Amino acid sequence: MTTPVTNIKFASHADRLLEPVWAEITAITPEAEGISTYWLKFVDPAAQAAYSFLPGQFNMVYLPGFGEAAISVSSDSEDRSLVGHTIRFVGNVTRAVSRLKVGDVVGIRGPFGAAWPMQEIEGRDVIIAAGGIGLAPLRPPIYYIMNHRERFGKVYLLYGARTPSDLLYPNEYKKWEQAGIQVQITVDRADENWQGQVGVVPMLFYRFRMNPESVVLTCGPEIMIRFVVYEGLARRIPAENIYVSLERNMKCGQGSCGHCQLGPYFICKDGPVFRFDTLESFFNVEEF
Amino acid sequence: MDSLEELKDELRKIPWFRELTPQHLDKIARIAHLQQVKAGEVLFREGDKEENVYIVLEGRIALDMFVPPRGKVRFYTAEAWEVVGWSSVTPTVRQRTAGASAVTDGLLAAIDAEKLRQACEEDHDLGYLTMRRLANIVASRLMVTRLQLLDIFAEPEEKHVK
Amino acid sequence: MSSEHRPEIGSTVAIQKSAFNALLNNLKEQGYEAIGPHVKNETLVYEPITALEDLPRGYVTEQEAGHFRLIYLGHSRYFDVIPGAQSWKQFLFPSRKELFSLTKNDGGWKMEEGEKGTPAYAFIGVRGCELAAIQIQDNIFLRSDFNDPIYRARRERAFILSVNCLHPAGTCFCVSMGTGPRVNSGYDLNLTELEDVFLLTIGSESGRGALTGVPLEAANGFVLNAANRALEHSASQMGRKMDTSNLPELILNHLDDPYWRSIGERCLSCANCTQVCPTCFCWDTLDTLSLDGNETRRTRVWDSCFNPGYSYQAGGNTRPTIHSRYRQWLSHKLGNWKQQFGTLGCVGCGRCITWCPAAIDITAEVVALREETSR
């Protein structure tokens, strides 16, 4: 899982440490309460032509004077015209981003991180289990599967959020169903107007039979990930077939500053996507 | 087709019923009936005296509680092969603690709760199998409830460091 | 041997101590800023030096867990003092460095680099443990997938005059970690201080160049033997030792052990150990904005895994308790570092033991953990 090579020095061997490349906001799509997707185009057309990312990678988005935030790229990795970031407004930097308008400029460093193993999982059934904002880094694999549907077996999306108004990308579920992805949605709670399921994401594993050769791709709150892994393992899917995307605060994004370390791994460099068996020995150690 | 046989055929689609002896299946079938529901139909309300325990065969049943001043909170939906109203099988709970309504058109197997409790008292083998199944159902609901209680998607709070 | 005849790389020569300043002058003329140990404000620091006389001749350091004293004994040796809190880390990986500033300009931002130009340092008196630490930091900052331009520029220009350590102090355990007291490689010049002369082993072209015009003498068998005997004796005088035979497994297999809580009760989470440790590399970025919002600066500063806000997720602080942060430090330094960089992260310099205000001694903690987990 290597980062793509570009001529523009986007990141790792920059002449100036942490130097950003400037990108303009071309559109903002509100997705849910406190969450919007920002569609970026690099100011320098050569940078736009050179930039590419793999599903699961992230950029450090820089707002001068406020700082940076690590944000997964949530757009189609095979569409090189724009770079989309679905951002939840939760800290200093992201709240400042929420005040930006179309035409404003942000700094980008990236792409960073290990990607979802789309080539390795060809030929298999794929179960995508996402919770909350965790669907954002899983949208690129969904697009990739749609672009190459014949390369994969049965594909399921199991997605849950707190309430119906917190669900991401609801306008796309139908398109995904039409592309041959079985979409199961649940929410933690709702009111009587909600016609869908109410429960938790791990319960969605009970809605269909899955064969042990399936691959699970999951992202969401760590508790949800733990239970999704548990449901996968209980159905005899081995830990080597379960991939999780983790999150930690990041500063450099390049495996240097040390903040995102989990055991021997830098989540920014060795992850954020991990094969679960590589995490097993310490994933459940409290406060590690 | 005899409606008892039709009922047994429906029940045999469910894995737990396939594990019962023909005698036990027969005992339960005789105190149960098939019930069709239409989308929006109320199955039971909070506070109702209990009558049946339901197994969803087709469709979706929603469980709601009325929380003043929030209104009706939908906290669970049961899909095919899930049980609704399981507390009527336990010895002590006697009133519905939530309301149940059909979200979609559906088909349920309704079992007379009091007669089921009686059958379990008379035949402890059947009683054990039923209570064992009940324990699994309750465990699963407890796990779901805990995850909902943890509110894992909520906005992160500012935490103070020790 | 005449001074026109330059010695081969790998060979050892001797110089009179009075000739050392000629070496320092050569380095100055070649554009280096010489940095060496120096007594200042009653303690030992690494500072620019211009002459041999700036070195702490006659001093020793008395070091124990949570204890440091610089003592003047009056002996005649220049390079004998085991270092204080500072290490060479602060020169290659400065504790505070402005990366760039941005000024608002026509709807965009104009970028200015932080201080331009890279100093060329000549490190005078690098001990084996310190050189091993520099090599460990090379693995961290200079990689094929990531390259820190600040570290690289300084490291490429740095001249290293290392020193064979003949009088270790109370918290030293370089022998256990395989980093000393003899320096084997990685230097431009390696120095051994004997009674009358300095022995210098040439490690590189730069090392040869630094000796241009310096009066050299042959290093005969007698002085070489004296040096070897002194090094053997030094190796037997280490103040501490650490059995590394089952590291990292000892720590990584016992992350849940209640033992960590007992350390947590003593540790103050003051981060001294990470500051004085020559291999600790964590850093943070500070973004400051001018009051009018027209200028912002990005600065890199040292950070520490003991800082409470060091690691967090959306749900909150990853390590809110002191014992979990201590466990992170030790399970990294003597544990996961190996998988990350190929070696353990500790070089046996003893600084973390000396400078811990709670007198926590990692050599003792490893022993205690071994005992606890073998019950």
What does this structure look like?
Chain A has 288 residues and is an alpha/beta fold. Chain A has two domains: 21-112, Elongation Factor Tu (Ef-tu), domain 3; 126-245, 3-Layer(aba) Sandwich (Rossmann fold). Chain A has helices at residues 45-50, 92-97, 139-147, 173-178, 222-234, and strands at 21-32, 35-42, 58-63, 67-72, 83-88, 105-112, 126-131, 155-161, 181-187, 197-198, 215-219, 242-245, 261-262, 265-266, 273-275. In chain A, the strands form three sheets. Chain A has a seven-stranded mixed β-sheet. Chain A starts with 20 loop residues before the first strand and ends in a 13-residue tail after the last strand. Chain B contains five helices and eight strands; from the N terminus they run αααββββββββαα. Chain B has 162 residues and is α+β, with helices and mostly antiparallel strands. In chain B, helix 1 packs across helix 3 and helix 4 packs across helix 5 (124-150). Chain B has a four-stranded antiparallel β-sheet with strand order 1-8-3-6. Chain B has a four-stranded antiparallel β-sheet with strand order 2-7-4-5, with no helix packed on it. In chain B, strand 4 and strand 5 form a beta hairpin. Chain C is built from 13 helices and 16 strands. An eight-stranded mixed β-sheet of chain C has the order 3-2-8-9-10-11-1-12, sandwiched between helices. Chain C has a four-stranded antiparallel β-sheet with strand order 7-6-14-13, with no helix packed on it. The longest helix of chain C is centred in the C-terminal third of the chain and has 20 residues, at 322-341. The model of chain C has no long low-confidence stretch (mean pLDDT 94). In chain C, 31% of the residues lie in helices and 24% in strands. The interface between A and C is large, with 43 and 52 residues.
